[in-house]
Amino acid sequence: MSKIKRAIIPLISIMILLLSACQSSPMIDVITFQPKEYDVMFLTDKTNSALENIYYDAIIEVKAEYPHAFSEVQTNETTIEDIENVTEQETPALLITKDGRTIESLSGEMEKDEIKEKLEGIIK
User: Which domain holds residue 31?
Assistant: First the structure.
């Protein structure tokens, strides 16, 4: 009986370690568009809809004001680890890059006018 207990405890420990290592990162939505020569990514994990709506409203208002400056908007679902040049990031977040280099990173609680100002700054 004691040999069985000694064999089961390490086996259970190994199983727990394997199962915890197999857990994947949470999925996030990535919305991308390219005004002028910039790349803009909006990252959201859908956990704070009130805060996310501020970002959506700012993007929609800027797109309505400058429709010619926006390329096709694309959306996909991925993990934060699968996005190039992005490490741990608070969501919602708006990343503005140019030539692969991050120019601006907005995240968390922001005023809609401040988000709009940053987007308009790369369009004008």
Answer: 27-123
Asked if 32 and 83 touch (Cβ cutoff 8 Å), the reply is no
Indicate the pTM of the whole model. Answer: 0.72
Q: Is 45 within the bounds of a domain?
A: yes
The reply to whether 58 falls in a domain is yes
Q: Give the C-alpha separation, 15 to 22, whole Å.
A: 11
Element (H, E) at 39: strand 39-44
Is 10 inside any structural domain?
Answer: no
Question: Residue 95 and residue 105: Cα distance in Å, rounded?
Answer: 5
* Domain count across the chain: 1
Q: Per residue in 72-105, pLDDT tens?
A: 888 888 776 766 655 556 779 899 989 888 888 8
- For the segment 44-57, the average pLDDT, to the nearest whole number, is 89
Distances (CA, A) of 68 to 34, 72, 113, 115, 117: 11, 10, 21, 19, 17
Assign residue 46 a region (left: φ > 0; alpha: ψ between -120 and 50; beta: otherwise): left
Position 65 in a domain: yes
